[in-house]
Write a structure and sequence with these properties.
Length: 69
């Protein structure tokens, strides 16, 4: 079973969803991608997040979107 990539804890950034094991909010990745930045640019700015975490999150998001479609 794959571990959750995103966690929300009221003791970490007031409960904002973050990448597990970091204090990097998921919203930061979304903001980077919306602005046209690449995953590599995001990872350079936030080295505590792994490429695999980003890929796992995007895969999970894709699955949820396809289920709702």
């Amino acid at each position: 079973m794959k571990a959750k990539v995103i966690v929300s804890d009221c003791h970490i950034l007031g409960g904002a969803p973050v990448f597990r094991g970091t204090r990097v909010p998921l919203q930061v990745l979304i903001d980077y991608l919306e602005s046209g930045s690449t995953i590599d640019q995001f990872l350079q700015g936030f080295p505590t997040v792994t490429r695999q975490q980003v890929i796992d999150f995007l895969d999970e998001a894709k699955e949820k979107v396809l289920v709702q479609a």
